[in-house]
């Protein structure tokens, strides 16, 4: 059934119009429109249009272009292997533009086949509300350490503007607002945003919603970003060995990091097809070659790699290894893969 479906898809690409043929590319995107809503001048306003390669062949994003200077598109990852994810980052230029803005972003894919996908963004940039800086950026924070950042919030043109509440779905954030400073035609708040020491490791991509007494601008978002870094990190977090033929050997690499030098005690994997070369020296960064020899039987590869170190706290990390063993691997056919 899968073979028949693939043949039909190839015929569709070869025989139909470009508008119909690009459907295979559109399927990779989880969303193709985004409304930023009402945002303040100077606010860091971004949205990542995520896409995932659903096919056996590598996908290459050749270029992006925008219909309006109010939005800047960026390719975060040009090449995507099977199941790999990437994104087109759309940044609203809130410093240079104001008012109601819309833009169409065209994503150009040239491999394995040519296609164009259009993404649409919109929003309203308020010139009378200003954030300094434009976002709450914690940067990289060691796990277990609290941190705070300050933002100046200014509303121009009125003196009775009031922030009545600050809301967030992230329980790891605390916010403290100063009393407003009211001058002729201006209201200013100092806002302190704290990251709790109990925040788990991982990326922070959230927002705070400022609730106001203005019926025309009842809510104003501000982005919160950062990364809580665990004592031990493994890159990549998901190791893809690719689509390989039975008996084929491929070599990949894991990068294991910590703030201070450490030794790797053991690397274990339930799949004996994986072999690791480990040094007994203490280093802050270990480069570990991973040799995978495909078994004789075709099938999906999905195994957990566990790294054990002598770090006194948080000294164990894991990595998921994925891949496919298949007869005739490497042939071009644009076949969807199944999980």
How would you characterize the overall build of this protein?
The chain has helices spanning 2-15, 18-21, 23-26, and strands at residues 33-41, 45-52, 59-66, 71-75, 79-80, 85-92, 99-111, 115-132, 136-142, 147-156, 163-167, 173-177, 181-183, 186-195, 202-212, 219-229, 233-235, 238-244, 249-262, 264-269, 274-276, 283-293, 299-309, 316-325. It is mainly β. The chain folds into three domains: 2-127, Immunoglobulins (Immunoglobulin-like, Sandwich), CATH 2.60.40.10; 135-229, Immunoglobulins (Immunoglobulin-like, Sandwich), CATH 2.60.40.10; 233-325, Immunoglobulins (Immunoglobulin-like, Sandwich). The strands form five sheets. Strands 1, 3, 5, 7, 8, 10, 12, 13 and 14 form a nine-stranded mixed sheet that branches. Strand 23 and strand 24 form a beta hairpin.
